Predict the structure.
Amino acid sequence: MALRRAAPSEPTLLLYAEQLARKEVEAGALRREKHRLQDELHRLQAATVANAEQHGEEAATLRGQIDKLHRDQSREGANMEYLKNVIYKFLTLQDTSGRMQTLNAILTILHFSPQEKNCVTKLQRNAWWR
């Protein structure tokens, strides 16, 4: 707000009072704007904190899922290695009793259903590898 000089015919005190009133109006408007901006700042800070907490929880969940996938993947490799060894033993065994034991291990590792186990056991009697 620019201050103007009093004209020679205008009393200086009246001009001063007018300018002071304008200044007070402007200061009031600036205070209201300051309060509005502070309220907005607090609202945004609260939203930021809430978002950070939510993202932190999501990140922790995702890290847990990644860790589980790594464990499953390493476990899967170990199970595959174990299954390979059991099948190798099954194919190289000469005695029927040893074959039946390794066949049961294979059926268990691969989670065969009871019906599938019965079918495989029956077919084992006439297997091509004997």
Remarks:
- The chain has three helices and no strands.
- Residues 12-92 form the longest helix (81 residues).
- Helices lie at 12-92, 96-109, 114-124.
